[in-house]
Amino acid sequence: MARFHRTKPSKGGFEAFSKLFPDRSREDFSLVFPYDLDKEKAYGRQKGLFAFDGERIYIASLEGEREEIPLDDCASFFLQRGVGCGFFFVRMKDGEERLLCRMSASGMSRAGAAARTLNHRIESGETKNFAREEARNCPKCGRRFPKGSQSCVHCGNKRKIFMRLGAVISPYKWQLLFSVFLFLAVSLISIVNPYLNKILVDGYINNSEAAAKENVLFLFLSVIALILLAQLLQRGLSLLRGYIMIRTGNRVILHLRELVFCKIQELSVARISKRTSGELLNRVTRDTGVIQRFLTDRLTALLEQILMLAAVSVILFAYNWKLALMVILPTPCVILSFRLFWRFMGGMFRRRWQLNSEANATLHDIFSGIRVVKSFGMEKREAERFEKITRREKEAQIRQEKAWAVIMPLLNFMMGVGEFFVLYFVGNEILSGGMTLGDMAMFSSYVGMVYAPLRSFAGLPRELLHTATAVSRVFELLDENSDVYDAANAVDMEIKGHIEVKNVSFGYEEGREVLRDISFDVKPGEFVGLVGPSGVGKSTMINLIMRMYDVDQGQILIDGKDIRELSQESLRSQMGVVLQETFLFSGSVAQNIAYAKPDATRDEIIAAAKLAGCHSFIIKMPDGYQTKVGEKGYTLSGGERQRVAIARALLHDPKILILDEATASLDTETEKQIQEALAHLSKTRTTIAIAHRLSTLRNATKLIVFDKGRIAEIGSHDELMAKEGIYYGLVLAQREMTKMQKEEGLAPKGAERKAHA
Amino acid sequence: MKTEVKTKEGVSKTEILHLTPSNAAFVRRNSLLSLTFTEEDGGQRVEKRVILKRAFPFDMPWQYIAVLDAHEREIGMIEALSLFDAETEALLREELARIYYTPKIRRILSMKERYGFSYWQVDTDDGDLSFTVQDTFRNLLRIGEDRLAIFDVDGNRFEIESLAALDRKSYKKIELYL
Q: What is the ipTM of this complex?
């Protein structure tokens, strides 16, 4: 963890190397990983290295621990996971287990990879490094990278980040430039306004000499007309600008959202399931919104305010530098206090926001589980739970509003103080005849113009930070490489349906293999059943065949071609999947059945529905095939949904059909019907099915029995029964069950019959 | 009332196999915790390496401890470590503390949040440590009113045993996330 982060992160804990192995060079070792905990005592940090030089393993720590074991004495290595730490073990050839070292959770993935590397070496004699050689800390600042990301949010060049934003808005640069130009025009006019006012006051209202001139009325009216014109122009241009900004803003955000959304769809299941859907939702909507607001509103406004501030300052100084200084002097104070204010309020705002989203999450939680709540009669307790969280939110809100109400007027007053000084000095000047009333009117207008942008500048750092966070989050996602990707030479191929699985090993996490050394062969048109207790890797196997994940070791071939050489689109478009958890999109039943084949004719849809055994209940619904299903639609039962999903897969007409507990929620009778339909179809396609109810697999040409991540048995039903192995045990157990059910169910009937006889 | 107690006992006897000083002896050999278990029929079973798991790690760290064999199959459950003699209790406590490595934070030296990550430097009962937490609000877990568990990006765990006992400076640094 920890220690290594800050001191010399780039070395990942290897700084001790030269001390521990003074007479060896780093190249001597094919494998080195650091460990950081005392293996005997619960507490006690150590700085140690585990190293392997091809023949012997070495464990050495700066605290004086030292051990050497020849690899020839070792049978296997394994990592036992604790909580917050891991234990690295070796199993010796004589069966004895020895603890080699212990490390905090930070070191576990490397240790897990090391165990695999060493085991592979013992089993096959080859040295293959399983460590994912990805740096986990930023080499520059030593901070940890975000999970699954390879860019540091801190050192990620900020200018570069904003440059990339430039690329996003470049198609709209003319619109944006035009809007900046309009902005400038508006501000110029607003600068002219106080000057016109001054002329009005000094020249005509407060001037008895001018009143004597002949054409005074005309001049007076023309100044007023000028002021009116300026106002009209200002409003008109603002209106135009607003229109342009909204238009371009919407386009920018659409563009950004499309980018993010497409990227999310491209990512592998592994990368997506790492994040909650709420988080992804936020990135698509909120983060892009923040960026859009910054780009279109703030950026142009900022430009305008800077220019305005500069222009007004110049005018003020040119007019009367002493007065100007008086206006400018308090500004650092104002900026500073605003910054402090924002920092103070920022925390409060965030807390309130967090509590708010927590309250929403609680609400969501309760509503999704409303049936459970009601069935256990826990409405009152849930109401209390919700009340508790809303009360916390309320308290945070009151606190924040209070602070706001107290501080805001104070700050505004402070900003006004400068104006009082101006008033005092200008008043004095007027009394002594150095300045006119018009000067004063103009000056106080300009002072207002200086303070307005300053006020918004104070909030700027926060806003920049906010935007930078959103930008880095969005770009992090855009930059993320899907770990399942199409090879450069990926091909589209017509699949016949021959699947070969060769020595496949796979684990979702480092050091935890779910599947080990799996090999089997499925001929085109075969119906293969995967059998075994839950949690042995059957669904994982199917995920691998669909290439939702890439195998760690070995190969999966379809028609003799590695699936990694096929384009994902071509692979999956020829597979049909029915999962236990079926998902129907909002839309009509017909649309759902035709999901993978939108141009299907009505005949095809009905045919597929009939095959899947859902025609009969669809036709009974009031809206028939146009019944709305999904989130807000008609609620289908679990079995009905499953049949619709089967129809969807059948209409898709895949070369490979995958059924993962697809018929689990159907009664045996309906299942039998579907089985027959499937049997009829599966002559032309390869089918792989997982089922716990073994009768589901009665048509299978081959059964593969999984046990603890390995294949235990392969063969037909009869072969496996003859073998009396695991499958035999499963069948017997289920027979026992059905017998029991039958006896229970039939007993009264039998009694009745007897009575009749 | 009486029947309820009866069923409760019945369940506990049939469902949970209790490990007590009378049927279980723990020893530490070569940094492995081993168990000699006496079956009801008097037969002895020796497990060279057993693993301890807490059933209620936060609320009852020294009670309801499951004992698993090397293949992570449950052998039985220890209802409370205090049932054993002082020496064994100390041994089991040490073993649990080894498996559940959770440095207790005594002082927060610094805690800075930027871009959704927070960077911590803390003083713990296992020395000064620093770590990184992603999505801070979600990775701080309140246990009861006064305790706080913290999970970092790697899966390390830290704990503040009592928020009330934390010095004011440290508390201020995390107050907003509570």
A: 0.89
